[in-house]
Amino acid sequence: SIQACLFDLDGVLVDTAKYHYLAWKRLAEELGFVFTEQDNERLKGVSRTASLEILLEIGGIKLDDAAKQELAERKNNWYVESITSMDETEILPGALEFLKECRSNGLKVALGSASKNAMLILNNTGLTPYFDAIIDGTKTAAAKPDPEVFVLGAKEVGVPTENCVVFEDAEAGIEAAVRAGMRSVGIGSPDTLSRANLVVPSLQQMSVSRLAEL
Ligand code: G6P
Ligand code: MG
């Protein structure tokens, strides 16, 4: 049975996936190539440095480490600009209700995000108090699809991996859940999230009773 729910942040609980995309797209434009929404699927859930590597590969650009560092910083500054003014209106439909339902049913709730900006987002949207454990990009060494972020989350809430379910909007995140030995719910389209046990358009379609379908 499911005893813990592990949530990705960007694109699952909050509407920040669009800000990440806009910032990467802007960077690609400055570098002189087009970066499509389809290209962006490969970046979802992936750490900042790993995302930049993929972006540069798409653009066919080779750079040294110092130049890469500068570009990653430039992207992050634009991104942080978009999220500093965020508030609870940018919580995605159904997310808050489902978090509350999980807690009132005695399920453990953990965050499993690659983002180093997670605390800023959680605090700005008022979501911080809903988590028993918060694992973000400041606490992990390996990026999704490595399972580390979810394995650490399960450990911190004291639930065996086979009793955990991961909520993810990214292919890399579903893959991380599979490698962690966890079940997964994809948030988005079944086309991109085919490996998830269940795919729903948003957390609005999710409820504790539906966890029995997994
Ligand atoms: C999330 C997003 C990614 C982002 C990563 C790192 O997983 O889905 O698009 O690249 O976090 O975020 P950060 O805020 O640290 O750049
Ligand atoms: Mg995500």
What's the SSE blueprint?
Elements: E1 4-7, H1 17-31, H2 37-40, H3 48-59, H4 65-83, H5 95-104, E2 108-112, H6 118-125, E3 133-135, H7 148-157, E4 164-168, H8 171-180, E5 183-187, E6 198-200
The site of magnesium ion has 9 residues, from loops.
Kindly describe this structure:
This protein has 214 residues and is α/β, with parallel strands linked by helices. It is 41% helix and 12% strand. The protein contains 8 helices and 6 strands. It has a 6-stranded parallel beta sheet with strand order 3-2-1-4-5-6. Strand 4 (164-168), helix 8 (171-180) and strand 5 (183-187) form a beta-alpha-beta unit. Helix 1 packs across helix 4 and helix 3 crosses helix 4. The longest helix is centred in the middle third of the chain and has 19 residues, at 65-83. 42% of the residues are buried. Bound molecules: 6-O-phosphono-alpha-D-glucopyranose and magnesium ion (MG). 6-O-phosphono-alpha-D-glucopyranose binds next to helix 3. InterPro entries: B-phosphoglucomutase_hydrolase, Beta-PGM, HAD-like_sf, HAD-like_SPP, HAD-SF_hydro_IA, HAD_sf, PGP-like_dom2. It comes from Paenibacillus zeisoli. Mg(2+) binds at residues 8, 10, 168-169. Pfam families: Hydrolase (PF00702). Its cofactor is Mg(2+).
